[in-house]
Amino acid sequence: MDKTHCVIFRPLLDAVASHWPGAQPFRFEIGPGWIGLVRDCHDALVAEFPQYELRAVKQKVAELAFQAWPRSRGPREAWGSDAPNWTEAEYRQLCRIEDRFAVRSQSICERCGGPGILRETRQPIWDMTLCDPCEAAVPMNFIERVRQLQDYMRAFNA
């Protein structure tokens, strides 16, 4: 993935990244094939929780891990007993939305967005959801795959 593709995808994710409370820019840790899925998950969360707080967007065990809270907890010093400022029912609803998109990601190629399946060929540490052409294109060597992802993320998050 080159810088041109990253520029095209960036506007799709700006709305998602705006829910990140951190001082540093938010880093998406997914392949480009899941960008539409991330945006759809964001839209579903905003419909229920307009002020949700983004915690992470990553690939975890070959599926999308979109992690959020129903709303900001505010500054750490204001947490008091460390109790969240949302109900258990709100948190369960948020988790149902996140889970729905995690399940969808199990059949979408993380690299191209086409139909994909779980590939356990990179055992023991790197399962991925890929289509046949992307399975052939993605390096089997873990070190090379990490290098490829780092290059992509550096270009995407620049």
Order of helices and strands: HHEEHEEHH
Through-space gap between termini:
13 Å
Strand order, main sheet: write it out.
1-2
Mean pLDDT: 81
Rg is: 17 Å
- How many helices? The count is 5
How many structural domains in the coordinates? 1
Secondary-structure content class: alpha+beta
- The shape, in one word, is globular
Helix percent reads 40-55%
Instruction: Let me know the number of strands.
Output: 4
- Poorly predicted regions are 1-8
User: Strand percentage, roughly?
Assistant: 5-15%
The biggest beta sheet, please?
2 strands, antiparallel
Features:
158 residues; alpha+beta; single chain; 4 strands; two-stranded antiparallel sheet
Annotate the secondary structure layout.
Blueprint: H1 3-17, H2 35-48, E1 53-60, E2 63-69, H3 88-105, E3 117-119, E4 128-130, H4 132-137, H5 142-157
Antiparallel strand pairs: 1-2, 3-4
Helix pairs in contact: 1-2, 1-5, 2-3
Describe the model.
The protein has 5 helices and 4 strands; from the N terminus they run ααββαββαα. The protein has helices spanning 3-17, 35-48, 88-105, 132-137, 142-157, and strands at 53-60, 63-69, 117-119, 128-130. The strands form 2 sheets. It has a two-stranded antiparallel sheet. Strands 3-4 form a two-stranded antiparallel sheet. The relative contact order is 0.16. Mean pLDDT is 81; it is low at 1-8.
